[in-house]
Amino acid sequence: MDQAVMIDTRHPLETPEGTDLSLYPAGFWVRSLAYTIDWLIRVAVVVATGFLFSASGIGQGMTLVVYFLMEWFYPVYFELCHNGQTIGKKALHLKVINDDGTPVTFAASLIRNLLRTVDFLPVFYISAIIASLCNRDFKRLGDLAAGTLVVYTNPIKPSPAIDNVGVRPVPEGFSTDEQRVLVAFAQRSATMSGARQAELANIIAPLVAPGDPVVAIKQMANHIVGRRADSP
Amino acid sequence: MNLEQLRIAIRPRRDWEAVDLGLQMARQWWWPMQRIWLLVTLPWILMGLLLPADSLWLVSLSLWWCKPLFERPLLMILSQAVFGFTPSTKEILRALPKLIFNQIFASLTWRRFSLTRSMDLPVIQLEGLRGKERSNRLQVLHRDDSGPATWLTIIGVHVESFLMISGLALLGLFIPAEVDLGIDSLEFWGESKTGGLLLLFFSYSAMALIGPLFVACGFSLYLNRRVKLEGWDIEIAFKRMVQKRGLQTFVLLAAIAFFNLLPQSAPPVWAADERAEIREQIIAIRNGPDFHQMKTHKIPKWQTDKEPELDSGFIEALFKLLEAFGRFISSISGFAEIILWGLVLALVAWVALRYGSWLSRFPQLLPRKRRQYYQPKKLFGMAVTEESLPTDVSAAALDLWQRQQPRQALALLYRASLARLLQSGAPLREDHTELECLKIAKQQSLPADALAYFSHLTQVWRQLAYGHELPDNTLAESLCRNWNHHWPDGARV
């Protein structure tokens, strides 16, 4: 199968230095949740302001000012001063960046948030949802105009430690990527049944012989991550 | 199942990222899925068109209720398409009865309200599990990364209804305001066939749009769990390792076989002392300056470089600040009000000074001045004050008439009448004509005979003044004599 048409969520990005970066754009499901959190916070703040100021006789004016700021500058403030994350985005491990991978700039943030008016049309961000499904990076109209991306920030869950079954040097000829796979097998074996572990390990049994391939791979993985024979 | 054929990039993903893979899959196979969805829901559309308006709700309800069944052919497409084989419409239709009737009762009754339907469907359809086996399997699958499955359903319900509302809103937006289709009335949606069909159409379209997304994302969550549980990515990588080694071993053997024919092919053998020398050289080079170059770069480090953390105290501080600000504002509010009003007045004054002359060019903008009424001293060039009149108007006029001065005689009668009218409060102005004066006189509450006299006099006077027609003697004399009778001295009408 042609590698080029593999369906993936990764947005590969090559820096001018020739380094490959991986960004993972987030789709509308998780973003709508983040938006809901932010919306609730904004409503809460506006209502609270209403209560706070209603005693002082300038309540309505102040509440309107706060409402205005919340409506238009809440996302801009958080995106610029809090690492591209509003509270809702932070809760769901999302952040806004420029689509070249750099932190979001003022102009971009302002544009993407002012254009929410357009994305909202005709009701409840339906334009945003449809627009995000029409491009690979799930950009809504504001993102397209501003050149921004919403990506995941959290790493994949840290893997459990490898069983301490001893150490064995890795035979010659295993590339870095292949060594990584050995480590991944050892780390993830905790979530796999014994039969499945054996089935997988048997595929490369000739390469890791002699001995039980499952144990052999785990021993090599221990070696790769730096455990030595005398360490506990 | 040959993982090598997979058309999706396999690796363990974050939970929400797995959902996004579902979105990408839906994007990839959108049209095949949409086509099948429209095909299997066709009976409902026919029902909608044929049934009367008052039973359309039944079509909507059954369409919604049977959604789990429509999702099955979509899953069939996806599950085969990810392995690089998209089934044809014919194949799907042939498999349809088996797909639909698989555990249909449970799916349409108590499992209809399951929030994790999208992620659970592959277990019954692809793994063919039922009963205890199924629930055990689901337990394993739901142990991790299954939170989004519930959210898919909750958000999906909302997005679906939003889609429907936006369809209606768009329709409303594009109907010109002049055209009244009766859409505003509840009756239109409730009882008319057109309204009912429109509602059905929009909810149907919304379901058609959300359906493939929902199925693909649930399937993707299911796949992600299996990738993690069974190490699919590891299997693929291991197989590649073996393939690569197989190839390399073969190449190496061939090379050895080839080079063995040549006598010089033996690798160079280093003597022991030569080796020691080389090692020393290596160490010397490694300790040399090439490997120990130090450079100091100075870059400014701003305080803001620290990643700002959003601590819980932030909101609290914000509120305290707002509170203090509110107190401050309210304490100076009286003073501030005065200042603000002062500013407003100053602004108005400045505008008036700066633009007053300009404004005067537009008299209609200025407040209309109520013109003050001054009682005129002269009308038609004749004095109409009481002082200018002789004491006995009738006698004076008759005298003038008999002295062959008819113009002066009638003029006296007329201006004397006007003077009396003015005296009685009639708002006569210098620019009024005789007829206007008569009109105004009619609006005054004059005695009927006086008014008739004045009317007659006006007519005679106009004929004389402008038409140069003398009245005959008897008429003129009667007018002169009657004046005193109709306009008694000092009469206040």
Give the gist of this structure.
The complex is a heterodimer of chains A (232) and B (493). Chain A has 232 residues and is mostly helical.
Output mean pLDDT of chain B: 81
What is the total domain count of chain A? 2
Helix fraction of chain A, binned, reads: 40-55%
Mean of residue pLDDT values of chain A: 83
Give me the count of strands of chain A.
4
Radius of gyration of chain A: 25 Å
Number of helical stretches of at least 4 residues of chain B: 21
Q: What kind of oligomer do you see?
A: heterodimer
Describe this structure in words.
- The complex is a heterodimer of chains A (232) and B (493).
- Chain A has helices at residues 28-54, 59-81, 87-91, 106-114, 116-120, 126-133, 141-146, 176-188, 194-203, 205-208, 213-224; strands at 11-14, 20-23, 94-98, 148-152.
- Chain A has 232 residues and is mainly alpha-helical.
- Chain A folds into two domains: 11-152, no CATH class; 159-232, no CATH class.
- A two-stranded antiparallel sheet of chain A has the order 1-2. A two-stranded antiparallel sheet of chain A has the order 3-4.
- In chain A, a hairpin with a 5-residue loop joins β1 (11-14) and β2 (20-23).
- The relative contact order of chain A is 0.10.
- The model of chain A has no long low-confidence stretch (mean pLDDT 83).
- With 493 residues, chain B is mostly helical.
- Among the domains of chain B are: 3-236, no CATH class; 378-486, no CATH class.
- Chain B contains 21 helices and two strands.
- Chain B has a two-stranded antiparallel sheet.
- In chain B, a hairpin with a 2-residue loop joins β1 (378-379) and β2 (382-383).
- Chain B starts with 14 loop residues before the first helix and ends in a 7-residue tail after the last helix.
- The interface between A and B is large, with 59 and 61 residues.
Topology:
The complex is a heterodimer of chains A (232) and B (493).
Chain A: E1 11-14, E2 20-23, H1 28-54, H2 59-81, H3 87-91, E3 94-98, H4 106-114, H5 116-120, H6 126-133, H7 141-146, E4 148-152, H8 176-188, H9 194-203, H10 205-208, H11 213-224
Antiparallel strand pairs in A: 1-2, 3-4
Helix pairs in contact in A: 1-2, 2-4, 8-11
Chain B: H1 15-28, H2 30-40, H3 42-50, H4 56-65, H5 67-81, H6 89-101, H7 104-108, H8 117-125, H9 131-141, H10 147-174, H11 186-190, H12 193-230, H13 232-259, H14 272-287, H15 313-331, H16 333-360, E1 378-379, E2 382-383, H17 393-402, H18 406-423, H19 434-443, H20 448-465, H21 473-486
Antiparallel strand pairs in B: 1-2
Helix pairs in contact in B: 1-12, 2-5, 2-12, 3-4, 4-12, 5-6, 5-8, 5-12, 8-12, 10-12, 17-18, 17-21, 18-20, 18-21, 19-20
